[in-house]
Amino acid sequence: MKKILFTITAIVSSIFLFSCKSENSTDTLCMSITSEPDSFFPWNSAAADTSAIYDNIFEGLTGFDEHGTIYNALAENYSVSSDNLTYTFNLRKGVKFHNGEEFTSKDCVYTYENLAGLNGKTPRADKMHVVEKVWADDDYTFSVKLKKITGGFPGLATSPILLHDYSDNEKHPVGTGPYKFVEYTLHEKVVLERNDEYYDSSRAGKIKNIELYIITDENAAISALKSGQIHIAQMISGPNARHLNSQFKVVSHPQNMVQILGMNTTFPPFTDINVRKAINCAVNKKEIIKSVFDGYGTELYSNFSPILAEFYNNDLKDFYPSDIKKAKEYMEKSSYKDGFDLTITVPSNYQSHVDTAQIIQNQLAKINIRCKILPVEWTSWLDRVYTKFDYEATVIAFAGKVEPAEVLRRYYSTYKRNFTRLNSPKFDKYFDMAETESNQQKRAEYYKECQKILTQEAPAVFICDPGRNIVMKKNVCGYTPYPIARYDFSKIYFE
Length: 495
Description:
Elements: H1 2-16, E1 28-33, H2 48-54, E2 62-64, E3 70-72, E4 75-80, E5 86-91, H3 105-116, E6 131-138, E7 141-146, H4 153-156, E8 179-185, E9 189-194, E10 209-214, H5 218-226, E11 232-233, H6 238-244, E12 249-254, E13 258-263, H7 273-282, H8 285-293, E14 297-299, H9 324-333, E15 340-347, H10 351-365, E16 369-376, H11 378-387, E17 393-398, H12 404-408, H13 425-435, H14 440-457, E18 460-472, E19 476-477, E20 493-494
Parallel strand pairs: 1-10, 15-16, 15-17
Antiparallel strand pairs: 2-3, 4-5, 5-7, 6-7, 8-9, 9-10, 11-18, 12-18, 13-17, 13-18, 14-18, 19-20
Helix pairs in contact: 1-5, 7-9, 8-10, 13-14
Protein backbone atom coordinates (compact mmCIF):
# COMPACT_ATOMS: atom_id res chain seq x y z
CA MET A 1 0.00 0.00 0.00
CA LYS A 2 2.83 2.39 0.89
CA LYS A 3 4.44 1.74 -2.50
CA ILE A 4 1.19 2.57 -4.29
CA LEU A 5 0.75 5.79 -2.32
CA PHE A 6 4.34 6.83 -3.06
CA THR A 7 3.82 6.19 -6.77
CA ILE A 8 0.66 8.29 -6.80
CA THR A 9 2.43 11.12 -4.95
CA ALA A 10 5.36 11.03 -7.35
CA ILE A 11 3.03 11.10 -10.38
CA VAL A 12 1.08 14.06 -8.98
CA SER A 13 4.36 15.86 -8.27
CA SER A 14 5.55 15.31 -11.83
CA ILE A 15 2.30 16.74 -13.17
CA PHE A 16 2.62 20.12 -11.48
CA LEU A 17 6.39 20.40 -11.59
CA PHE A 18 6.57 20.75 -15.34
CA SER A 19 7.64 24.39 -15.54
CA CYS A 20 11.29 23.77 -14.64
CA LYS A 21 11.87 21.89 -17.87
CA SER A 22 15.64 22.11 -17.98
CA GLU A 23 18.00 21.82 -15.06
CA ASN A 24 20.50 23.80 -17.17
CA SER A 25 18.22 26.85 -17.28
CA THR A 26 19.57 29.88 -15.44
CA ASP A 27 16.34 31.87 -15.62
CA THR A 28 14.28 29.90 -13.12
CA LEU A 29 15.07 28.38 -9.73
CA CYS A 30 12.65 25.68 -8.55
CA MET A 31 12.55 24.75 -4.87
CA SER A 32 10.28 22.64 -2.69
CA ILE A 33 8.58 24.01 0.43
CA THR A 34 7.00 21.72 2.97
CA SER A 35 3.87 23.59 4.06
CA GLU A 36 1.09 25.71 2.63
CA PRO A 37 1.65 29.45 3.20
CA ASP A 38 -0.73 30.72 5.89
CA SER A 39 -0.84 34.36 4.70
CA PHE A 40 1.42 36.63 2.65
CA PHE A 41 0.04 39.60 4.59
CA PRO A 42 2.76 39.87 7.28
CA TRP A 43 0.34 41.03 9.96
CA ASN A 44 -1.79 37.91 9.51
CA SER A 45 1.00 35.36 9.23
CA ALA A 46 2.22 33.16 12.09
CA ALA A 47 4.16 30.53 10.12
CA ALA A 48 7.95 30.79 9.96
CA ASP A 49 8.07 29.09 6.55
CA THR A 50 5.79 31.78 5.14
CA SER A 51 7.86 34.68 6.47
CA ALA A 52 10.93 32.92 5.05
CA ILE A 53 9.37 33.54 1.65
CA TYR A 54 7.88 37.01 2.08
CA ASP A 55 11.14 38.37 3.51
CA ASN A 56 12.16 38.54 -0.15
CA ILE A 57 9.12 40.69 -0.94
CA PHE A 58 9.02 43.05 2.03
CA GLU A 59 11.70 44.99 3.89
CA GLY A 60 12.02 46.87 7.15
CA LEU A 61 13.79 50.06 8.10
CA THR A 62 16.63 47.78 9.15
CA GLY A 63 17.59 44.28 8.06
CA PHE A 64 19.90 41.54 9.30
CA ASP A 65 22.50 39.35 7.64
CA GLU A 66 23.33 35.67 8.04
CA HIS A 67 25.23 36.41 11.26
CA GLY A 68 22.29 38.26 12.83
CA THR A 69 24.07 41.60 12.40
CA ILE A 70 21.68 44.53 11.91
CA TYR A 71 22.18 46.76 8.86
CA ASN A 72 20.33 49.74 7.39
CA ALA A 73 17.72 48.72 4.82
CA LEU A 74 14.94 51.19 3.91
CA ALA A 75 16.54 53.57 6.36
CA GLU A 76 19.78 55.03 5.05
CA ASN A 77 20.81 55.63 8.66
CA TYR A 78 19.31 56.47 12.06
CA SER A 79 20.16 58.40 15.20
CA VAL A 80 19.11 58.02 18.84
CA SER A 81 18.24 60.86 21.23
CA SER A 82 20.32 61.49 24.37
CA ASP A 83 17.67 59.85 26.57
CA ASN A 84 17.69 56.73 24.32
CA LEU A 85 13.93 57.00 23.77
CA THR A 86 13.60 58.53 20.29
CA TYR A 87 14.90 56.94 17.10
CA THR A 88 15.03 59.12 13.98
CA PHE A 89 15.35 57.30 10.66
CA ASN A 90 16.60 59.04 7.52
CA LEU A 91 14.89 57.17 4.70
CA ARG A 92 16.31 56.19 1.33
CA LYS A 93 15.12 58.25 -1.61
CA GLY A 94 14.10 56.81 -4.95
CA VAL A 95 12.86 53.50 -3.54
CA LYS A 96 9.68 52.18 -5.15
CA PHE A 97 7.15 49.57 -4.17
CA HIS A 98 6.55 46.80 -6.67
CA ASN A 99 3.44 48.55 -8.02
CA GLY A 100 5.45 51.68 -8.83
CA GLU A 101 4.44 53.76 -5.77
CA GLU A 102 7.27 55.71 -4.17
CA PHE A 103 8.35 54.76 -0.65
CA THR A 104 8.05 57.67 1.84
CA SER A 105 7.61 58.33 5.54
CA LYS A 106 3.82 57.99 5.10
CA ASP A 107 4.34 54.26 4.72
CA CYS A 108 6.40 54.13 7.92
CA VAL A 109 3.79 56.07 9.90
CA TYR A 110 1.01 53.83 8.57
CA THR A 111 2.97 50.65 9.36
CA TYR A 112 4.04 51.59 12.88
CA GLU A 113 0.66 53.00 13.88
CA ASN A 114 -0.81 49.64 12.98
CA LEU A 115 1.99 47.57 14.52
CA ALA A 116 1.82 49.46 17.82
CA GLY A 117 -1.94 50.04 17.89
CA LEU A 118 -1.73 53.82 17.90
CA ASN A 119 -4.61 56.20 17.14
CA GLY A 120 -7.19 53.60 18.14
CA LYS A 121 -5.89 50.92 15.77
CA THR A 122 -5.70 47.25 16.72
CA PRO A 123 -2.07 46.34 17.62
CA ARG A 124 -0.59 44.11 14.95
CA ALA A 125 2.65 43.18 16.72
CA ASP A 126 3.08 42.50 20.42
CA LYS A 127 6.75 43.40 20.18
CA MET A 128 5.80 47.01 19.33
CA HIS A 129 4.08 47.59 22.68
CA VAL A 130 7.08 49.79 23.58
CA VAL A 131 6.18 52.38 20.93
CA GLU A 132 4.50 55.49 22.35
CA LYS A 133 4.37 57.81 19.34
CA VAL A 134 5.44 58.02 15.69
CA TRP A 135 5.62 60.95 13.30
CA ALA A 136 7.15 62.20 10.04
CA ASP A 137 9.04 65.49 9.86
CA ASP A 138 9.09 65.28 6.08
CA ASP A 139 8.79 62.68 3.32
CA TYR A 140 12.13 61.12 4.18
CA THR A 141 12.43 61.53 7.94
CA PHE A 142 10.57 59.22 10.31
CA SER A 143 10.74 59.19 14.11
CA VAL A 144 9.67 56.72 16.78
CA LYS A 145 9.38 57.61 20.48
CA LEU A 146 9.47 54.68 22.90
CA LYS A 147 7.73 54.35 26.27
CA LYS A 148 10.91 52.99 27.82
CA ILE A 149 14.50 52.38 26.81
CA THR A 150 14.59 49.34 24.55
CA GLY A 151 18.12 48.34 23.63
CA GLY A 152 16.97 45.89 20.97
CA PHE A 153 14.76 48.32 19.05
CA PRO A 154 16.97 48.40 15.90
CA GLY A 155 16.27 44.66 15.65
CA LEU A 156 12.53 45.26 16.00
CA ALA A 157 12.75 47.77 13.14
CA THR A 158 13.25 44.86 10.74
CA SER A 159 9.42 44.60 10.67
CA PRO A 160 8.14 44.87 7.07
CA ILE A 161 7.06 48.32 5.91
CA LEU A 162 3.72 48.22 4.06
CA LEU A 163 2.39 50.65 1.46
CA HIS A 164 0.03 53.05 3.24
CA ASP A 165 -2.76 53.20 0.65
CA TYR A 166 -2.72 49.56 -0.45
CA SER A 167 -5.24 47.02 0.87
CA ASP A 168 -4.66 43.84 -1.15
CA ASN A 169 -1.56 42.37 0.53
CA GLU A 170 -3.51 39.25 1.44
CA LYS A 171 -3.97 38.24 -2.21
CA HIS A 172 -1.19 40.16 -3.93
CA PRO A 173 1.54 41.39 -1.55
CA VAL A 174 3.44 44.48 -2.62
CA GLY A 175 6.74 45.40 -1.00
CA THR A 176 10.08 46.98 -1.87
CA GLY A 177 12.25 43.84 -1.71
CA PRO A 178 14.50 42.20 -4.31
CA TYR A 179 11.71 39.88 -5.48
CA LYS A 180 8.10 40.57 -6.51
CA PHE A 181 5.09 38.36 -5.88
CA VAL A 182 3.57 36.91 -9.07
CA GLU A 183 1.07 34.24 -8.03
CA TYR A 184 0.09 31.65 -5.46
CA THR A 185 -1.79 28.51 -6.52
CA LEU A 186 -3.33 26.68 -3.58
CA HIS A 187 -1.71 23.27 -2.88
CA GLU A 188 0.66 23.79 -5.80
CA LYS A 189 3.15 26.66 -5.94
CA VAL A 190 4.24 30.22 -5.20
CA VAL A 191 5.92 32.23 -7.96
CA LEU A 192 8.22 35.23 -7.47
CA GLU A 193 9.96 37.43 -10.02
CA ARG A 194 13.12 39.49 -9.67
CA ASN A 195 12.59 43.19 -8.97
CA ASP A 196 14.74 44.75 -11.69
CA GLU A 197 14.27 48.22 -10.15
CA TYR A 198 15.66 47.22 -6.75
CA TYR A 199 17.64 50.07 -5.23
CA ASP A 200 20.63 48.11 -3.82
CA SER A 201 22.75 46.33 -6.42
CA SER A 202 24.69 44.46 -3.72
CA ARG A 203 21.50 42.72 -2.54
CA ALA A 204 19.70 42.43 -5.89
CA GLY A 205 18.48 39.08 -7.17
CA LYS A 206 20.62 37.11 -9.62
CA ILE A 207 17.98 34.64 -10.86
CA LYS A 208 14.97 36.01 -12.75
CA ASN A 209 12.20 33.64 -11.58
CA ILE A 210 11.64 31.71 -8.36
CA GLU A 211 9.10 28.88 -8.29
CA LEU A 212 8.31 27.32 -4.91
CA TYR A 213 6.44 24.03 -5.07
CA ILE A 214 4.39 22.86 -2.10
CA ILE A 215 5.50 19.26 -1.60
CA THR A 216 4.60 17.96 1.83
CA ASP A 217 5.86 14.43 1.13
CA GLU A 218 9.63 14.08 1.47
CA ASN A 219 9.86 11.15 -0.95
CA ALA A 220 8.04 13.17 -3.60
CA ALA A 221 10.48 16.07 -3.10
CA ILE A 222 13.46 13.73 -3.47
CA SER A 223 11.91 12.23 -6.61
CA ALA A 224 11.43 15.70 -8.07
CA LEU A 225 15.05 16.58 -7.23
CA LYS A 226 16.40 13.43 -8.86
CA SER A 227 14.35 13.96 -12.02
CA GLY A 228 15.54 17.56 -12.37
CA GLN A 229 12.12 19.10 -11.76
CA ILE A 230 13.41 21.08 -8.79
CA HIS A 231 16.87 22.40 -7.95
CA ILE A 232 16.56 22.55 -4.15
CA ALA A 233 14.72 20.25 -1.75
CA GLN A 234 13.97 21.64 1.70
CA MET A 235 13.80 19.90 5.07
CA ILE A 236 15.24 16.54 4.11
CA SER A 237 15.63 13.99 6.91
CA GLY A 238 19.07 13.01 8.13
CA PRO A 239 19.11 9.48 6.66
CA ASN A 240 18.00 10.73 3.24
CA ALA A 241 20.49 13.61 3.34
CA ARG A 242 23.32 11.15 3.98
CA HIS A 243 22.12 8.90 1.17
CA LEU A 244 21.95 11.80 -1.31
CA ASN A 245 25.28 13.32 -0.34
CA SER A 246 27.23 11.69 -3.19
CA GLN A 247 24.87 12.88 -5.93
CA PHE A 248 23.96 16.34 -4.67
CA LYS A 249 25.19 19.21 -2.58
CA VAL A 250 23.99 18.93 1.04
CA VAL A 251 23.91 21.85 3.47
CA SER A 252 23.05 21.12 7.11
CA HIS A 253 22.92 23.91 9.68
CA PRO A 254 21.34 24.84 13.02
CA GLN A 255 18.09 26.72 12.57
CA ASN A 256 18.05 28.83 15.75
CA MET A 257 14.91 26.81 16.43
CA VAL A 258 13.89 25.33 19.76
CA GLN A 259 11.92 22.09 19.77
CA ILE A 260 10.08 21.66 23.06
CA LEU A 261 7.69 19.44 24.93
CA GLY A 262 5.53 22.33 26.12
CA MET A 263 3.49 21.87 29.28
CA ASN A 264 0.35 23.85 30.13
CA THR A 265 1.35 24.91 33.64
CA THR A 266 -2.32 25.51 34.54
CA PHE A 267 -3.11 21.81 33.90
CA PRO A 268 -3.25 20.33 37.47
CA PRO A 269 -0.31 17.87 37.31
CA PHE A 270 1.89 20.59 35.82
CA THR A 271 1.08 23.07 38.58
CA ASP A 272 3.39 20.82 40.61
CA ILE A 273 6.96 21.78 39.69
CA ASN A 274 8.26 18.38 40.79
CA VAL A 275 6.22 16.79 38.02
CA ARG A 276 7.75 19.17 35.49
CA LYS A 277 11.23 18.41 36.80
CA ALA A 278 10.54 14.67 36.69
CA ILE A 279 9.54 14.90 33.03
CA ASN A 280 12.69 16.87 32.25
CA CYS A 281 14.80 14.06 33.72
CA ALA A 282 12.75 11.31 32.07
CA VAL A 283 13.06 12.68 28.53
CA ASN A 284 16.21 11.46 26.81
CA LYS A 285 17.09 14.23 24.35
CA LYS A 286 19.98 12.35 22.78
CA GLU A 287 17.65 9.51 21.83
CA ILE A 288 15.29 11.98 20.15
CA ILE A 289 18.11 13.69 18.23
CA LYS A 290 19.48 10.34 17.07
CA SER A 291 16.14 8.71 16.22
CA VAL A 292 14.18 11.65 14.79
CA PHE A 293 16.92 13.85 13.33
CA ASP A 294 19.55 11.18 12.59
CA GLY A 295 22.01 13.01 14.79
CA TYR A 296 21.50 16.37 13.05
CA GLY A 297 20.57 18.45 16.08
CA THR A 298 22.01 20.45 18.97
CA GLU A 299 20.86 19.49 22.48
CA LEU A 300 19.31 22.42 24.36
CA TYR A 301 18.67 23.22 28.03
CA SER A 302 16.55 26.35 27.83
CA ASN A 303 14.55 28.18 25.18
CA PHE A 304 17.64 29.49 23.43
CA SER A 305 20.01 28.19 20.77
CA PRO A 306 23.81 28.59 20.95
CA ILE A 307 23.70 29.98 17.42
CA LEU A 308 23.06 33.37 19.15
CA ALA A 309 26.32 32.96 21.03
CA GLU A 310 26.49 36.46 22.50
CA PHE A 311 23.33 35.91 24.54
CA TYR A 312 23.54 32.15 25.17
CA ASN A 313 23.80 30.80 28.74
CA ASN A 314 26.33 27.99 28.55
CA ASP A 315 25.95 26.82 32.18
CA LEU A 316 22.64 24.98 32.15
CA LYS A 317 23.60 21.53 30.90
CA ASP A 318 23.54 19.71 34.23
CA PHE A 319 20.20 20.90 35.64
CA TYR A 320 18.22 17.88 34.46
CA PRO A 321 20.33 14.88 33.53
CA SER A 322 18.65 12.13 31.54
CA ASP A 323 18.10 9.90 34.57
CA ILE A 324 15.00 7.77 35.19
CA LYS A 325 16.01 7.21 38.83
CA LYS A 326 16.16 10.98 39.38
CA ALA A 327 12.85 11.39 37.55
CA LYS A 328 11.20 8.87 39.87
CA GLU A 329 12.58 10.74 42.91
CA TYR A 330 10.92 13.95 41.68
CA MET A 331 7.64 12.06 41.13
CA GLU A 332 7.82 10.75 44.71
CA LYS A 333 8.12 14.35 45.94
CA SER A 334 5.08 15.37 43.90
CA SER A 335 1.35 14.97 44.48
CA TYR A 336 1.22 12.44 41.62
CA LYS A 337 3.26 9.51 42.94
CA ASP A 338 1.09 7.04 41.00
CA GLY A 339 1.42 8.96 37.76
CA PHE A 340 -1.40 10.30 35.58
CA ASP A 341 -2.90 10.29 32.09
CA LEU A 342 -1.60 12.89 29.66
CA THR A 343 -2.66 13.97 26.15
CA ILE A 344 0.09 15.32 23.92
CA THR A 345 -1.41 17.44 21.12
CA VAL A 346 0.83 17.50 18.04
CA PRO A 347 0.49 19.27 14.65
CA SER A 348 0.16 16.35 12.24
CA ASN A 349 1.87 18.13 9.32
CA TYR A 350 5.21 18.13 11.18
CA GLN A 351 6.31 14.50 11.18
CA SER A 352 9.37 15.23 13.32
CA HIS A 353 7.11 16.47 16.14
CA VAL A 354 4.84 13.45 15.81
CA ASP A 355 7.88 11.14 15.94
CA THR A 356 9.27 13.03 18.94
CA ALA A 357 5.95 12.70 20.76
CA GLN A 358 5.98 8.95 20.20
CA ILE A 359 9.45 8.62 21.71
CA ILE A 360 8.45 10.79 24.67
CA GLN A 361 5.37 8.60 25.13
CA ASN A 362 7.65 5.60 25.66
CA GLN A 363 10.06 7.50 27.87
CA LEU A 364 7.37 8.89 30.20
CA ALA A 365 5.79 5.47 30.57
CA LYS A 366 8.83 4.60 32.72
CA ILE A 367 7.58 7.04 35.39
CA ASN A 368 3.96 5.96 34.99
CA ILE A 369 2.81 8.94 32.94
CA ARG A 370 0.43 7.38 30.44
CA CYS A 371 0.50 9.42 27.25
CA LYS A 372 -2.04 9.61 24.45
CA ILE A 373 -0.91 11.34 21.27
CA LEU A 374 -3.50 13.56 19.58
CA PRO A 375 -2.47 14.61 16.03
CA VAL A 376 -4.34 17.71 14.78
CA GLU A 377 -4.19 19.84 11.65
CA TRP A 378 -1.92 22.87 11.76
CA THR A 379 -4.78 25.37 11.76
CA SER A 380 -6.40 23.46 14.63
CA TRP A 381 -3.14 23.51 16.59
CA LEU A 382 -2.82 27.27 16.11
CA ASP A 383 -6.39 27.76 17.33
CA ARG A 384 -6.50 25.30 20.23
CA VAL A 385 -2.96 25.41 21.59
CA TYR A 386 -1.40 28.68 20.46
CA THR A 387 -4.48 30.87 20.85
CA LYS A 388 -6.91 29.26 23.32
CA PHE A 389 -4.43 27.23 25.46
CA ASP A 390 -6.85 24.29 25.24
CA TYR A 391 -4.32 21.49 25.69
CA GLU A 392 -2.28 19.58 28.27
CA ALA A 393 1.08 19.12 26.55
CA THR A 394 2.39 19.62 23.04
CA VAL A 395 5.47 19.07 20.91
CA ILE A 396 6.31 22.05 18.74
CA ALA A 397 9.32 24.09 17.66
CA PHE A 398 9.66 27.82 18.24
CA ALA A 399 11.01 29.59 15.18
CA GLY A 400 14.22 31.49 15.75
CA LYS A 401 14.48 35.24 16.06
CA VAL A 402 17.44 37.58 15.80
CA GLU A 403 16.39 39.74 18.76
CA PRO A 404 16.68 37.80 22.09
CA ALA A 405 13.59 39.50 23.51
CA GLU A 406 11.49 37.95 20.75
CA VAL A 407 12.82 34.51 21.65
CA LEU A 408 12.17 34.77 25.39
CA ARG A 409 9.02 36.91 25.42
CA ARG A 410 7.03 33.71 24.84
CA TYR A 411 7.29 33.00 28.57
CA TYR A 412 6.45 36.48 29.87
CA SER A 413 3.45 36.19 32.20
CA THR A 414 1.18 38.66 30.37
CA TYR A 415 2.22 37.84 26.81
CA LYS A 416 -0.90 36.75 24.96
CA ARG A 417 0.91 33.87 23.19
CA ASN A 418 2.45 32.49 26.39
CA PHE A 419 0.78 29.12 25.87
CA THR A 420 2.77 27.32 28.60
CA ARG A 421 1.04 29.84 30.93
CA LEU A 422 4.24 30.31 32.97
CA ASN A 423 3.82 33.00 35.61
CA SER A 424 7.24 33.81 37.04
CA PRO A 425 7.71 37.27 38.59
CA LYS A 426 11.46 36.64 38.68
CA PHE A 427 11.57 35.87 34.95
CA ASP A 428 9.45 38.96 34.20
CA LYS A 429 11.78 41.11 36.31
CA TYR A 430 14.95 40.12 34.47
CA PHE A 431 13.22 40.27 31.10
CA ASP A 432 12.11 43.86 31.83
CA MET A 433 15.64 44.75 32.93
CA ALA A 434 17.05 43.36 29.69
CA GLU A 435 14.52 45.18 27.54
CA THR A 436 15.25 48.56 29.09
CA GLU A 437 19.04 48.17 29.12
CA SER A 438 20.99 49.95 26.39
CA ASN A 439 24.36 48.43 27.33
CA GLN A 440 24.71 45.31 25.18
CA GLN A 441 26.86 43.39 27.68
CA LYS A 442 24.41 43.96 30.52
CA ARG A 443 21.49 43.02 28.28
CA ALA A 444 23.23 39.74 27.52
CA GLU A 445 23.69 38.98 31.24
CA TYR A 446 20.01 39.64 31.95
CA TYR A 447 18.90 37.40 29.09
CA LYS A 448 21.21 34.67 30.34
CA GLU A 449 19.53 34.94 33.73
CA CYS A 450 16.14 34.62 32.02
CA GLN A 451 17.32 31.37 30.44
CA LYS A 452 18.45 30.07 33.83
CA ILE A 453 15.08 30.88 35.39
CA LEU A 454 13.28 29.09 32.56
CA THR A 455 15.41 26.02 33.15
CA GLN A 456 14.65 26.14 36.88
CA GLU A 457 10.91 26.69 36.38
CA ALA A 458 10.73 23.94 33.72
CA PRO A 459 7.55 24.99 31.83
CA ALA A 460 8.83 22.79 29.00
CA VAL A 461 11.42 20.22 28.12
CA PHE A 462 13.81 22.12 25.87
CA ILE A 463 14.88 19.36 23.52
CA CYS A 464 17.05 20.50 20.62
CA ASP A 465 17.77 22.86 17.78
CA PRO A 466 17.06 20.52 14.84
CA GLY A 467 19.49 20.67 11.95
CA ARG A 468 17.97 21.98 8.72
CA ASN A 469 19.06 19.76 5.86
CA ILE A 470 18.96 21.25 2.37
CA VAL A 471 19.78 19.13 -0.70
CA MET A 472 20.45 20.84 -4.01
CA LYS A 473 21.86 20.38 -7.47
CA LYS A 474 25.62 20.80 -7.57
CA ASN A 475 25.41 23.80 -9.87
CA VAL A 476 23.35 25.79 -7.34
CA CYS A 477 25.49 28.22 -5.36
CA GLY A 478 24.98 30.89 -2.74
CA TYR A 479 22.40 29.17 -0.54
CA THR A 480 22.92 30.99 2.77
CA PRO A 481 21.80 29.72 6.20
CA TYR A 482 20.31 32.40 8.48
CA PRO A 483 19.67 32.38 12.25
CA ILE A 484 15.96 32.30 11.44
CA ALA A 485 13.90 30.56 8.76
CA ARG A 486 14.72 32.55 5.65
CA TYR A 487 15.23 31.80 1.98
CA ASP A 488 17.48 34.57 0.69
CA PHE A 489 16.96 34.19 -3.03
CA SER A 490 19.03 37.31 -3.76
CA LYS A 491 22.21 35.37 -2.91
CA ILE A 492 21.47 32.23 -4.93
CA TYR A 493 22.89 31.74 -8.41
CA PHE A 494 23.70 28.99 -10.88
CA GLU A 495 27.35 28.14 -11.36
